[in-house]
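Aim 2 progress update. The chain analyzed this quarter is reproduced below.
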Amino acid sequence: MIYLILMFNLLKFYTVWNIILVLFKNLTIYYFDIHLSTLFVFLCGFYLSFIYPKYYIFILNNKKIKITGWLRFIIVDIIFHTIPLIYIINIKYEYNKQKILNQLILFFIYLFFNNIFHIYNIRLIDYYRLILFLVIVFLN
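Predicted structure tokens:
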């Protein structure tokens, strides 16, 4: 039961959504632009890790676990942001407007169901910067 709760709590992070897309790439690559999604996750992860707020908070059994410093860098940034990017970059990229649109819809579904201000502890200015990243990455 605890693992089910942990999995549900982790779904509030878009990185986990992206990891699912990457793990099932043989299916998802036909419907979503996982290259751009992974690049977006990498850029946003970099922003959240090194610019603001510089930490991540996980909640398990109503207990907050704050991940900072080298632990944040190794666990979150390298394993969940950088390795998927390196893996996906090595797969041939085919530009497809429909896949980009599907990816944007998926991202906005994520935004609809998740309060990113609470999850990532970001300010409104950070939100606008991340949306600007989104526009640059997905619509470029």
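The first helix runs from residue 2 to 10. The chain has a mean pLDDT of 87. These observations will guide the mutagenesis experiments scheduled for the next reporting period.
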